[in-house]
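Following up on my earlier thread - several people asked me to post the actual chain instead of describing it. Fair enough. Here it is, all 331 residues.
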Amino acid sequence: MEAMGRHTVLLLIALLCPLHPNSAEAAPQPRSMRVGIPVADLRKEPRAPLPVRDHDLLEQTQLLYGERVEVLEEKEGWARVEAVEQLEWSENQRWQGYPGWVQQTALVPDNPRWVPNLMVTKKETDVLKGPGYESSFFMRLPMGSRLLATGRTNPSNELREIRLIDGRAGWVQVIGARPLEQLRKKAVEESPLLRTDLAATAQQFLGDPYYWGGRSAYQYDPQAPVPPHTGVDCSGLVGLVYQANGIQIPRDAHEQWMQAVPISPEQLSPGDLIFLHDPENPEKVTHVMLYIGKERIIEGPGTGKPVREISLKDRLREAKGRRISFGTYLP
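Reply from S.P.:
Thanks for posting it. Predicted structure:
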């Protein structure tokens, strides 16, 4: 009996402590990839978006061309990712990239030699196949897309050569995409034009349809496959406007409120933000608007309503009974 006991103990030790520790299966490491299509949906579950532009609670956010993600898991044509360039806090009560599922066909391997140095700053821009406007085009990219400029330009028509993620050369309008370094410098140096530019950028979206989870410039193309639907929600609009002007802020309204510097209504200047809190939970922000000056705001109001400009007084009258906060990301 004593010998059998020792044998049992040795067997348990062997099972619990393998002789070759390196043979144990290691947890898979996140894999860096980039978005290779103009717009991709990030979903709460690996299920396709609705075919109509309804309020779809599974829509987390949208990913844009050139955006980097960390792939955590893959199954049945979907990848569970962390969108590292879109800060989020509410999901796990910590700051992280936005989590969700994206279709694998939207992603391409991250090439360490493809480092974006350009961002689309117009509402949308065409990537042409040649250095002339008569050329056909590869794709139409929305504001916020990232590109790699080669440094070559065509002075006669103000086109700039870019390199796509797959290695193909393309051409975009110089005025349609700006160097990232130039955008960062503009934001850091506190250019007096920055506030004006934020308002002007937001005005490009007026009349566009609201889309829950959307952060892409609306493109009307009856022949284009849907989804993805294009459009913006309230915080998607604000985030894109800031991003196109060299300032990265969190993805959602509550997180934008968390990181903004509180200000009083009297301190409001163009480019500042106005937040509405949940009437049932005053500590939770559920809506954000961009102040553009002269007592007016621009916002994505909600499903079924287009992006609009409205007087601040009228908008706050609509929000009667809700807690209101004011914040800024600017000096």
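Residues 1-21 have pLDDT under 50 and may be disordered. That should answer part of your original question.
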